[in-house]
Amino acid sequence: MAAKKRSEMAVKHEFKSYRDITPMHVSLGNMLYNKTGAWRFIKPIYEDKAPACQNACPAGNDIEGWIKLLGRQEFEKAYWHLKREEPFPAILGRVCFKFCEGACNRGVFDDGIRIQELERFVGDRFSPATPHPELPAYNGKRLAVVGSGPAGMSAAYFARLLGFAVTIFDRETLPGGILRLGIPGYRLPRQVVAAEFEGLSRMGIDLKLGTEIGKDMALATLTETFDYVFLATGAHRSIPLQLTENLSCCRIISALFLLKQVARGETVSLGKEVVVIGGGNTAIDAARTAVRLGCRATVLYRRSPTEMPAHPDEVREAEEEGVCFRFLAAPEDIALRPDETIEKLVCCEMELGPADDSGRCRPLRKEGATFDIPADTILMAVGEEADMGYLSQFIASTDPILRTHEDLSVPFDTPAAARVFAGGDMTDTPHTVVHAVATGKKAAIAMDCNRRGIAFTDIQDHIRIGNGDALSFSRYMNWAPVNPVPCNDRMVVDSSKIVYDYFIKSPGCNKMVQPADQRRFSFAPYHDTLPEEQALLETRRCLHCGRCTECDNCLIFCPDVSILDQTRETFGYAIDYDYCKGCGICFTECPRHAMTMVSEG
Amino acid sequence: MKKAIKGNHAVSHGVRLSKVGVISAYPITPQTTIVEALSEMCAGGELDARFIKVESEHSAMAALIGAATAGVRTFTATSGNGLLLMHEVLHWTAGARLPIVMATVNRAVSGVWNIWAEQTDSLAQRDTGWIQIFCESSQELLDGVIMAYKLAEKVMLPVMIAYDAFFLSHTTEIVDIPDQEPVDRFIPPYVPPVSLSFDNPRMFGGFFATDYFYEHRYTLQLAAQEALAYYPEVCREFTRDFGRTYDLIETYRTEDAEIILVTAGAITSVSRIAVDQMQGRGVRVGLMKLRLFRPVPVDCWRKALEKATKVVVIDRNLSVGLGGIFASEIRSVLYGSAHRPPIYSVIAGLGGRDVTPEDVEGILNHVIAQDKPSDAPLFWGLKK
Amino acid sequence: MQKKFEIPRQVLVEQDLMQPGITSCQGCAAPLSMKIALKALGERTVVVFPACCFAVFVGGYPYSSLKVPIIHCPFETSAVVASGAAAALSVRGEKDTVVMVWAGDGGTFDIGMQALSGAAERNENILFVCYDNEAYMNTGIQRSSATPMGAWTTTTPEGCIKEESKKDIEQIMLAHHISYMATASAAYPDDMFKKFQKARGISGMKFIHLLSACPPGWRIDPAHTIKIMRLATQTNVFPIYEVCKRPVSADTEQITEEWQYTINVFPEKNVPVGSYFKSQGRFGLMTDEMIQSTQKRVDRKWQELVEKAG
Ligand SMILES: Cc1cc2nc3c(=O)[nH]c(=O)nc-3n(C[C@H](O)[C@H](O)[C@H](O)COP(=O)(O)OP(=O)(O)OC[C@H]3O[C@@H](n4cnc5c(N)ncnc54)[C@H](O)[C@@H]3O)c2cc1C
Ligand code: SF4
Ligand code: SF4
Predict the structure, then answer these.
(1) How far is the CA of C272 from the centre of ligand 3 (A)?
(2) What is the pLDDT of residues A97-114, one digit of tens each?
(3) What is the spatial distance between Cα B376 and Cα C14, in angstroms, rounded to a whole number?
(4) Which residue range is the domain that position B33 belongs to?
(5) C90 to chain B: nearest residue by CA?
(6) Distance of CA A233 from the midpoint of ligand 1 (Å)
(7) Mind giving me the DSSP string for A323-340?
(8) Residue of chain A nearest C267, judged by CA positions
C-alpha cells in the first residue's frame, strides 16, 4: 500500500455559518472524503488463473510462468520453474504430442505459441546434472520404482523432491524405456535421455539395470524391503495381427521389436519393400526407420487420415520423407514366393461404418475390392499391451490394463502390498510420454500423502489445475508462483476470455527442421533447438493468459483513479477500495483475464 | 483636460483611464460608439486591453465571467434588447461576485422596434444583484465608470452605469478628462480576493446544494449592503481627488420644497429648468435625482422626502400592469417611513418621446391641482 | 505482443490531476477521459464547465476533484467563457497555459452551439472538448441533436426511437476553419493522450470530439464501457481521426486542400454495425432494416473519410 492512504488526505469543510462561504465561492478541498467504495457490491481483485495451455498439458506444465521468466532472460529461473511441473523439458520438448499448443489461445488469433520449441530451448540450456536448487533432505522412506521409462523417471524425480530415497529397477541395460528403445534417435537423441539419468543420479536416485522383476527379483522382495513401490513397466507386448489362417508361419515382424533392434545397434535386413500395418506412432516411426534403412515404406491403415492416432506432424514429416500411405485398406492375405519369403500383401479396401464405442468409425470391408502391395517385410504396429505376468501372484485379473485406484495405488488382494502404486502405459492412461510423466507426478504426491497420513483425494482438488487431471506439484509444495498474487489454478482462461484487441498479430517462429531429402538418409537428429534470439522473440508472442503482466491496462482504464501503482514495492498494482466503485472496467479490459470480480463481504 | 465629447465617448475615456484588461462587446445602437472608440483606443495603444468581439450580448457578458474570474478588470456595454439577452448571465456574474462594470445605454424594448430612450431595460435587471447607477451627464458618466470600478472591486459585485439613449449617449458636452496618474491612485490595479492560480488551483463556483445555497444568497444581500455603506466613502475620496461630488442622490432646491419631483437620467436636466421656473413663480418645488438605485439607499431617500407634502415621480419606464418602476420603489421605501407623503406617478417620454421643461411644468401643475393621487399612473403626453 | 502504451509510464502513474471521490456513475467514461486529458495537458490547465454531468460530479461546493483551476459557467456560454479566461491569462502574461472547455453534447451540439460557433470563428486560443454521451443524461436521458438515429430516450415518445440523424459536429467545426479538429475515445487512450498533447501545442481554436459511454443512458453494463466504445470505432460508427490545417505556402499559386485528414485507428476486422447497436439497450427498438440502412450510411461516411485521408 501507498505510504499514506488517500482517504486520510481528505479535507472536509465544516460549514456552520454563511460567513464560511468563501470569496468567489472557491473550493476548499477535494472529494477524497467521499468514499465511493461504499457503492460497490462486487469488487475486482488480482487473481491469476490457469492458461489454456497449462490446462491442456497433462503434466500441468506452468508454461506461462517460465515463458515470462525466459522473456526476461532469466534463463536459470525459467529452467527450474519449468522443471517444477515437467521435469524433462529436453525430452518432452522433442517428443511430446504438445497438447498445450493445440489449446494455445493465440491459435485463434493468428498462430499459436511454439511452446514445445521453447520448452526444448529451456531444457537444452542447462544440463540436467546441474545441482537441483530445491532438493530436500530425506524423509526416511524408501521407494522402489520398477521401469525406467518416463513414468518411472517422473515418479523418481518427484518422490526425491518429496524426500524419498529412490531406487529404479529395469530389466534393460539401457535406461529410459520407450524413450531409449522405441523412439528413434533422430527424433530423440540418445544422449538427451542419458543426460536425464545423470541428473536423476545426481539427485541421489539409484539405478539398478538388468534386473527384471518377476525373474531376477520377486515383486514381494520389493514390497518387503521398500516402503513404497511404483510400477511403470509400460506396454511392450505387441498385439498380434489377426489375418486369415496360414499366416502364422510367415515372417512378420513387430514394429516395436524392429525399433528396439535398431536402438540397440543390432543389424537388421528388411529387403526393399516394407509395409507397415497400423496408424499409431509406432507405425510411423517404423516406416521412417525403414526409409532410413534404404527401404520403400508403405503404411497401411484401416481408417481415414482423420482417425489416425499418430500425431499429424509426424505423419506429415513421414510423408515428406517418402513414406507412402494407403488409407481405408486392411491386410487380407500374404502371397509367398516359393522360397517362403513374402512377395506381396493382399489388401482389401475398407469403408467407414457407424461409430463404435471409442467414438471412431468402424472400418468395414468392401466385398471383393482387393488389391496387392509388393512387400519384402511386413511390420506390425497395431498396438502394444502390458505384460503383467510378474503380477500374477498378487492379482488375478487377465485384463491387459492395470486398473488402479484414483490415487494410482494398485488394488492388490494382499494387504502387504498396500503401498504399491502404478502409472504409465501399463495403466489406464493414454500412451504418451507426457501422460506417463503425469502419472509419475501424481503417484509421488499420492505416496507422500500416504506417508503423511492424509487422504490424497482431499488434497487432489486443491492442487488440480484447471478442469483436467493435471496436478500442480508447486502448489502441493507451496512454492511461490512467478506473480506474487493469489492464483486460482482451477479457473481456465480460454480464448473467450482474452481481449484480442490489445494484441498485435505476428507469426510464430520457424522451426529449425532439415529438409526431407537431407534427413531421410540419416539417423542423426534433424530438428534443431531454436537459437536464443528466435526463442526470445517467440516468448514475446505469449499472451500470458490469466497471468498479470503489469501491462497497465487496469491502471489506465480505471475511471475512478483507484488502481495504484506499486511497482517499487511488491506486485504491480493495488486497488484502492476506498474509492473503487466496482464498475468492472478493469476486469473487462484486462487483456488476459488476470482479474476476477468477487462479491463483496 | 477639458474636451467636448459625446456621452458614449465619456464612457470610453472612463474605461481607458481605468486600465481595463479585457473588453467584450456586441454592437447595438445606441451603444456602438462606446466600443468603436474603445476599439480604436486598443488599436492605437492608448489602452492595453484584449477586445473580444463576440457574437452576441449574451456572450459579451459571458466572456467576462472567464476574464473576471481569471482576475482581470473587465468592461462591456450594451443597450435594450442586448441587455435583456444578458439577463441570465447578469444573475450569474453577480452571484459569482465578479466586479464587472457595464455601461447600459437605456433603450426601449418591446414587441416592436424602437432604438430610443427608455429605462425599462435596466430596471428589468434590478433583481440580478448588479449595482445600478443612473447618470445624467457626460462628466458623470466618465467619473461614474472610474468610481464604479472602485466600488465593484471593493464589494465584489458588478456595476451597471445606466443612461438614456441619444439624449445622453449622443449629445456632446464639455467634459473634464482626468489625467491618468490620479486615476491610477484612485483605482490601483485589480487584485481579486482569490486569484486563479496554478500553484493553488481552486474551483470557482459549481454546484451548491440546499445546505449552502440559501446562505450564498444571503451573502449577496450582505454585499449589496456593504456597497451601500461603502459608496459614500468612494464619493468622498473622489471629491478629494477630483473635486467633483456624486452622492447617493442629488437634491436641488429641496430645502423649502413642498412638492418634490423625483427623476433619474436625462429627464433630470429638463426638470431642473422647470423647477427653476416654478420656483421663480413662487411654487415651492424641489428635485431629487436618483443616482444609486441598487442597492436602494432607503434612509437617504426617506430623509430627502421627509418634509415633502407631495412627491411626483416621473418614470421613463413602465412595469406593465403596475406603472412607473421608480414610483413603485419610492412608494415601498416610504411605506415604512414616519412621514408618508402622497406619491404621484407619472409615465413620460417612453421610446424616446421628448420631455421638455414645459412638459415637467405641466406635470407639476397637474399635480398641484389634485387633492390626492389616483391609483393609476398618469400617462403624460399620450396622444388621446 | 501486446500493444504498447506510449503514454510515458511516469505520467501514467504519477501525474493524476484528477482525484477519486467523484460521484460519477459506475463505469462512466467521462472521468476516465478527463484523467487522460489532464495527463496530457498538465497542471497549467484551466477547465471550464458548463452545465453537464461532470460539472456536478466533479464535486459540489466547496470540493473539487481536479487539481487544476476550474471555472463553472452557464450552460450555453462555455466557449466564450473560455475565450474570456484565455484573454485574461494572456493579459496577465501567463504563458504555456491552456484553457479547456469540457462540455457535454447538449452544451456543444445544442445550447452551446452559438457561443462555440462564435469562438471558433474568432479562432480563440482555447481547446473545446465535447464529451458526447449522446443525450441529456444529467437530466434523465432526453434526446439531443447528438443522439444517434435509432436510439431510445425519455423524450422520444413511448416505444419510439429517434428518427433524425445525429448532427455532424465535425463538419460543422471544420466549416469554421479552426486550427485543429479531432475525434477520440477513451477506448484508445494512447491516441487520446497524443491528441490532447498535440492540441496543447497548437494555437487557436481546437476541437476534440470524445465519444463517452454512459452506462445508465446507453443501457449497458458499466463494465462494458470501453468494450462498447471500442466497438463503436471498430464498426466505423465512431471513426477516430484528426484534421490539421495544412500549412499554406505563400510562394505557390496553387490552391491546395486546406485540410490534412489522418485516420488514427483503422478497424482491424470488418465488424458489422449491428454488433455495436445490439450491445446496447438504448438501441433495443432498432429493426434489422434500420441497422442495414445504417450500415450503408456508415460505410459511405467511412469511404468518404478514407478518401479525404487519401
Ligand atoms: C515407437 C514408439 C514411439 C512413440 N513415440 C512417442 C512420441 O513421440 N511421443 C509420445 O508422447 N509418446 C510416444 N510413444 C508412447 C510413449 O513412449 C509411452 O507412452 C511411454 O514411453 C510410456 O512410458 P512408461 O514409463 O509407462 O513405459 P516405458 O517407456 O515403456 O518404460 C517401461 C520400462 O519398464 C521396463 N520393464 C518392463 N518390464 C519390466 C520388469 N518386469 N522388470 C523391470 N523392468 C521392466 C522396460 O524395460 C522399460 O524400460 C511412443 C511409443 C512407441 C512404442
Ligand atoms: S509437456 Fe507437452 S503438453 Fe506439456 S507443455 Fe510440454 S509440449 Fe506442451
Ligand atoms: S498465449 Fe501463452 S499463456 Fe496463453 S495459451 Fe498460449 S502459451 Fe499459454
Answers:
(1) 29
(2) 999 999 999 999 999 999
(3) 71
(4) 2-242
(5) B50
(6) 7
(7) -EEE-SEEEEEEEEPTTS
(8) A501
To the nearest whole percent, how much of chain A has pLDDT over 70?
96
Question: What CATH number has the domain bearing residue A307?
Answer: 3.50.50.60
Q: What are phi and psi of A491, to 5 degrees?
A: -90, 125
Q: Is the pLDDT of residue C253 over 80?
A: no
Instruction: Assess whether the C-beta atom of A113 lies below 6 angstroms from ligand 3.
Output: yes
Ligand 3 centroid to Cα of residue A534, in Å, is 17
**How far, in Å, is the centroid of ligand 1 from the Cα of A234?**
5
Give strand ranges (E) for A446-502: 487-493
Q: Which three cell numbers stand for residue B145?
A: 465608470
Nearest-by-Cβ selection for A23 from B193, B203, B212: B193
Superfamily of domain covering C25-308? Thiamin diphosphate (ThDP)-binding fold, Pyr/PP domains (3.40.50.970)
Render pLDDT for A15-43 as a digit per residue (tens, 0 to 9): 889 999 988 999 999 999 999 999 999 99
First to last CA, chain C: 29
Kindly state if the Cβ of A285 falls inside 6 Å of ligand 3. no
Ligand 3 contact via A542 beta carbon (within 6 Å)? yes
Indicate the pLDDT class of residue C112, thresholds 50, 70 and 90: very high
Residue A1 is predicted with a pLDDT of: 42
Residue A394 pLDDT greater than 80, yes or no: no
> What chain B residue is nearest to A21 in terms of C-alpha separation?
B216
What is the count of structural domains for chain A? 2
Residue B121 carries which side chain, given as an amino acid letter? D
- The residue behind cell 466618465 is B142
Task: Identify whether residues A414 and A291 lie together within a single domain.
Answer: no
List, for residues A309-362, the tens digit of each pLDDT value.
899 989 999 999 999 999 999 988 888 888 878 888 899 999 988 888 777 788
User: Which amino acid type is present at position B248?
Assistant: L
For residue A385 and ligand 1, the question of a CB distance below 6 A is answered with no
How many residues comprise chain C?
310
- Cα–Cα distance, B54 to B118 (Å, whole number): 25
Report how far residue A542's alpha carbon sits from residue A559's, in angstroms, rounded to the nearest whole number: 28
What CATH number did the domain enclosing B289 receive? Answer: 3.40.50.920
Distance CA B75, CA B25 (A): 8
A53 lines ligand 3 (CB under 6 A): yes
Residue type, B125: Q
CA–CA distance, A563 with A566 (Å, rounded to integer): 9
User: What are the residue ranges of helices labelled H in chain C?
Assistant: 9-14, 29-41, 53-57, 78-91, 113-121, 169-174, 189-201, 215-218, 225-234, 273-277, 288-309
First to last CA, chain A: 20
Joined together, the cell numbers standing for residue C72 give 463553472
| CATH at B115 | 3.40.50.970
- Shortest Cα distance from B98 to chain A (angstroms)? 8
Sign of the Cα torsion A178, A184, A189, A191 reads positive
In a domain, B384, yes or no: no
Block residue for cell numbers 439577452:
B85
C174 touches chain B (CB under 8 A): no
* Chain B touched by C121 (CB under 8 Å): yes
Q: What is the pLDDT of residue A3?
A: 53
CA atoms of A61 and A154, how far apart (whole Å)? 13
**Which residues lie closer than 8 Å to A422 by C-beta, 6 or more apart?**
A230, A231, A232, A402, A404, A408, A410, A439, A443
- DSSP per residue over A6-59, as a string? GGGG--PPP--SGGGSPGGGB--B-STTS-GGGG-SEEEEE-EEEEHHHHHSTT
**Structure letter (DSSP) for residue B98:** -
- Rounded CA separation A479/A81 (Å): 10
Going by C-alpha positions, the residue among A598, A584, A491 that lies closest to residue A545 is: A491
Taking alpha carbons only, the member of A285, A156, A322, A276 closest to residue A226 is A156
Helix axes A63-71, A115-125, angle to 10 degrees: 60
Range of the domain at A431: 142-236+386-453
The domain tally of chain B equals 2
